[in-house]
Amino acid sequence: xxxxxxxEQCKHSRNAIALLQKLGVDFVRVNIFEEHPLRLEMLQLTGxxxxxxxxxxxxxxQGFDAKLYEEFVKQHAN
Length: 78
Known about the structure:
Blueprint: E1 2-6, H1 11-22, E2 27-31, H2 36-46, E3 53-56, E4 59-62, H3 66-76
Parallel strand pairs: 1-2
Antiparallel strand pairs: 1-3, 3-4
């Protein structure tokens, strides 16, 4: 399962959401502002709170780059 950590007011987060939806990817959206326990989970995994962050298992990608997101999805989507 792919998880996308976002802040709703972040332009890059909104772009990441739109891209994943366009690609038809099933993903869980986590707003780190509202979901404090999951924010801690993200911090423990990545060492930062940079958003957007794409995660699958122990693999993650921080920031937003459409090409890198597409590659990540190809590797991790079921």
